[in-house]
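S., here's the first fold you wanted:
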Amino acid sequence: MEIQSNYKQNLSILIHLLGWALFGLVIFILSPLSSGVERPFEFWLKQGINLSLLIAVFYINYFYFIPRVLFKNRIPLFLSINLLTGIACILFLILFDDWVNMQELMHKAYRPDVPYTPRPRNYYWDISQLLIFFMVIGISTSIASVQKWQADEAEKLEQKRQQINSELTYLKAQINPHFFFNTLNNIYSLTNIDVEKAKTALLKLSRMMRYVLYETEKTHTLLSKEIDFINDFIELMKMRLSSKVKLEITIPEKFQDAAIAPMLLLPFIENCFKHGVSSQKESMITIQIDISDHQLTLETSNGIFKSSENTPEGNASGIGLQNTKRRLALLYDHRYNLFIDDQNPENEFKVLLKIDLK
């Protein structure tokens, strides 16, 4: 990382040096030489002073006035400073011309056989120099503004990345601890009835815990691992269900693997079991996952039964879904569609989620 930083810094210095060398060569050397007239030393001295002034103004503006004045939203002051500075530079060059008698020296260079007669100063060249000055100011302002924009964007991306990571950590904490405790209790009860079934359930639970602990540390995981996690979750949830609950589960066994954010589907499926199960009434839960052409489609539907606020299900209501909506917006931006319908005649909670995994 340090080597890369030094490389970028050295490259930036080199670009600045080459840029000024090219600018000075074209404007202050090649352009005068193109006239084919041998000019006096004082002229080249003025060119050197002019270029030095422009370089000084560029970096004073770049390192001081732009960050401390322009970026502080003091635009009128910034414009006034640069206008006065430009005028001061031109006045300095005019005084230099008068001091070395530049007009007479240039007359002798261009018309050596014609006697010199003082004439009013031609301010055309001074205006040209002022325009070059403002061009340099504009370039320095543009470069500083673009770099600030890039730095702000990089900072936003870093904040976004940290926010995604923190929200994923929060989501991991929100995967109901009561689910694991209840599952362990169910497994314990199974040991007295069906030892092999208890072993299988314990294996699934340990596999889920391994996924939560290790796979969620990554930004993305394999879709196949996410699907295995969902299957294990559903199988363990079945242990808690009575005969009054009917399940329709459609999850593909074979599909083209892809990368996906970990634990992105669980809150929607967990929500089905949180709020779609009644101890007194018949209930139906439908979960369907389809994967084709790098597009994942999740459809769920369940009845809506109010959980007691004193239960973990009641207290956790909506937290996982809100968090997942936020993660979808952060991670997939315009590459997903989410439709949730909880206002329908069937009194069902329906979810349709489509994610482009390309």
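And the second, which I think is the more interesting of the pair:
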Amino acid sequence: MKKLDHLDANIIYALARNARASLANIGKQIGISGPAVGERLRRLEDAQVVDSFGVIVNLKVVGYSLEALVRIKPRSGQLRKVESLIADQPRFLWCDRITGEDCFVAKLALVDVSELDDILFTLHDFAETHTSIVKSSVIRPRLPPLLPLNNE
């Protein structure tokens, strides 16, 4: 793990709060100049510590009233086919390959629960699926601690 100092960590935290913040504004927040923030940010990108910048869309506002978590277990010899079908379905927000009984866990965006069967239908010849509807999100996507914890 690359060691980050407090300034690097604070730059990343500031960008996580608002990726559109100017370098000058971030610099004011953490006590260095905008150009110094820019140089540190370039180094963090070159070192692949910062991989990308993004937008978080409020799914409800754009019409997706539900989210579902889907555990997916491909049938024998169908792993690559199932992976391709998941990748081709734009309603899957993310998908992780996991250990255990299932091979994948993924999150779907749904307008209505009635869509679930239609969206998952393409998988059913190639995999078993187990679905849970998300009632609420206790923790939204966030960064892990970037500086060493006290006991490390």
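Why I say that: Residues 6-46 form a domain with the Arc Repressor Mutant, subunit A fold (CATH 1.10.10.10). The two ends are 13 Å apart (CA to CA).

Talk tomorrow,
H.
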